Amino acid sequence: MSGTTGTGLPGPSTTLFDHALRLHQLAPDEPLPRDGYPFPDDASHRRRGPKAPENRHLAGRDVARLLDAHFARASALPSELADIFHDVYIPIHYNERIAAAATRVDTERARQTGRWLVRHGTDRCSVTVGLALLAVVGTADDIPLVQTVGLLSDRFGPLAAHVFERQAGGVEALLWLAERVTGWGRVYAVEALCRLDDPAARGWLLRRACDGDSLNGYFAGEVATVARLHEALAELDTDSEMVDHVGRLLHLMSDCGGMGLTLAHYPHARAVLEAHARRVGSLSPTMERYFTIAVLTQHLTTEPSEAAGCTTAQREALRATYLEVLEREDWTRVARAGIAADDNRMRWLADHRAPQLRLRAFRDREPDAGA
User: pLDDT means per 10 residues in the chain (371 residues)?
Assistant: First the structure.
């Protein structure tokens, strides 16, 4: 594997694949720090790149033209494409014009070209084009290659997910990648899993899809729907991991208007809220659980009943159940510990929610207050 040694940044000759692999090997089960940025080619991408055409239907035209010219020469090698895309606009999502260029040449040649660019490309432009080719002609043999470079998910996540959607074994590849990316990369991977709607992914979607990033709001409602959360509510009685994840889903759906499906439009909102409220109070308190319940309680306090898919009586009953948990002594102690430690969640509650709810933990910091 090429690349520099020690703690310095990789040199400009380092491939994007090797860069991703090196970072991945440092923490194999975690997302890459800062999504892998800075890339080895950072110096050549500090200035703003070519703009997308005003007519979005023309996006990918220049890439397709360069590919057609390359493939028209039978003797042309994939390495000749390494640096020619730097000055044209390259879509990071699946593009029909680039896909058409991949089909106008012998499939095996297009495949070998895509593989070479993904494995040996030292510039993000050429690697993106390689992934765009594999999104059309790739095979299951390309999954390990695409998984590794897909860890640089902010840039390569959309096309990596598209490659996996086409392949046998794609669900497993997407689950592997989704566990190791965050931010926009997680959005691309989870949305692809939802589109596939494979039973093999249901358990993960019910327990692991949301990692707490605000961008999870784009897919939280879709996860609840595709994973048929309402049919799995009985599992909450024995699965604390699922309880916490359902709390994240509800929190996100309470405030994701303009992003994804909200509680107001989720047909099973009341049933899921009731199941969560009934179960979460039997678990030991944590700052995440306290934060989630407080946010949901505030939603039930300030929003109309229909915003939670409830009648007024049902909303008040849910609010009372959540408030009873939040006001318990052991839950109050956990919240106060977070306040003392300047936990971001507790600070946010203090600034945005506690004044409306008058929660015990925020009313008085004395240990015996309200006992």
Answer: 38 87 97 96 85 90 97 97 94 97 97 98 97 97 97 97 94 98 97 97 97 95 97 95 97 93 96 97 96 94 89 95 96 94 90 74 59 38
N- to C-terminal Cα separation, the chain: 63
DSSP one-letter code for 11: P
Contact 59, 97 (CB under 8 A): yes
- Domain positions in the chain: 9-196, 212-371
Cα 95 to Cα 256: distance, rounded to the nearest angstrom: 28
Separation in Å, CA 48 to CA 44, 52, 180, 263 = 10, 12, 28, 39
C-alpha triplet 145, 131, 188: angle, nearest 5°? 90
Is 54 buried (19+), middle (13-18) or exposed (0-12) by CB count in 10 A?
A: exposed
Is residue 132 a contact partner of residue 98, using CB atoms and an 8 Å limit? yes
- Tell me 160's DSSP state: H
User: What distances in angstroms separate CA 70 from CA 81, 307, 352, 359, one per listed residue?
Assistant: 8, 56, 57, 67
DSSP for 262-311, written as a single string: -GGG-TTHHHHHHHHHHHHTTSPP-HHHHHHHHHHHHHHHHS-GGGGT--
